[in-house]
Amino acid sequence: MRLRKSWFRRALLGALALLVLFVMAVLLFPQQVLSLDSGEVQADALVLLGGGRGERPARAAELFHSGAAPTIIVSGGGDAEQNKHLLVSAGVPAAAVEIEPKSTSTRQNAEFSSALLRKLGAKRVIIVTSWYHSRRALRCFRHYAPDIQFYSRPAYYGYPRSEWRRSGAGGHIRSEYVKLAGYWVCYGVSPF
Q1: 3-state secondary structure at position 47
Q2: Which H or E run includes 150?
Q3: CA 103 – CA 155 distance, rounded (Å)
Q4: Per-residue pLDDT of the chain (192 residues; tens, 9 = 90+)
Q5: Which residues does 115 contact at the CB level (< 8 Å), separation at least 6?
Q6: Which domains does the chain have, with CATH numbers?
Q7: Which residue, of 6, 58, 90, 144, has the fewest CB within 10 Å?
Q8: Coil vs helix vs strand at 125
Q9: C-alpha 138: how far from its chain's center?
Q10: Pick from 45, 48, 42: nearest CA to 96
């Protein structure tokens, strides 16, 4: 009996130590945990998610001009028209941009945009969002549209730790961890 208690205590302490190490890694290295970048890839379409401070449409325009994809779907109920305008101002032809204006969350971005992507016959798609949002966005799209191959090419505004306070990235990083857990529990979207 005494041996069992000792083993249980050691196992509990080991699990607690692993949990502390995991929390420290998450807090100290959010760029490595939250940011997913697939690298250079050719795709049938880009999906630009709403939000950010203008860095997302700038990144989508950059990818479009580099030939990464011939079409951009702008997803997001709050700023879809504004983001389309920013894309056109950056030299993207208006005919190459389609809007999905109904979504109000990352889950809805994935659900609603996937329907448009299927209509276009897209098989390979690049998701464009902020670096700290890229893990959840990519996992969400893969969860809701497993028949389409998704890649991530995020914008890196506010990436260096020295810019977190000025850019507001610190608050976004903290809330992203909560949202990752929430999406896993509520919708079954695994962050791994």
Answers
A1: strand
A2: strand 149-152
A3: 20
A4: 666 777 877 877 777 777 666 666 666 678 889 999 999 999 999 999 998 889 999 999 999 999 999 999 999 988 999 999 999 999 999 999 999 999 999 999 999 999 999 999 999 999 999 999 999 999 999 999 999 999 999 999 888 888 888 888 888 999 999 999 999 999 999 998
A5: none
A6: 34-187 (3.40.50.620)
A7: 6
A8: strand
A9: 5
A10: 45
Contact 157/126 with Cβ under 8 angstroms? no
How buried is residue 113: exposed, middle or buried, by Cβ count under 10 Å (0-12/13-18/19+)? Answer: buried
Residue 94's nearest CA partner among 66, 68, 124, 74 is 74
- Own/partner long-range contacts of 15-19 (Cβ < 8 Å, ≥24 apart): none
Instruction: Round to whole Å and give the CA distance between 149 and 147.
Output: 7
Tokens of 81: 């028209």
Give the chain's count of helices (H) and strands (E): 8, 5
Q: How far is CA 112 from the centre of its chain?
A: 16
168 three-class SS? coil
* CA proximity to 191, closest of 176, 173, 174, 171: 176
Concatenated DSSP letters of 12-36: HHHHHHHHHHHHHHHHH-HHHHH--
Q: DSSP string spanning 69-115?
A: -S-EEEE-TTTHHHHHHHHHHTT--GGGEEEE----SHHHHHHHHHH
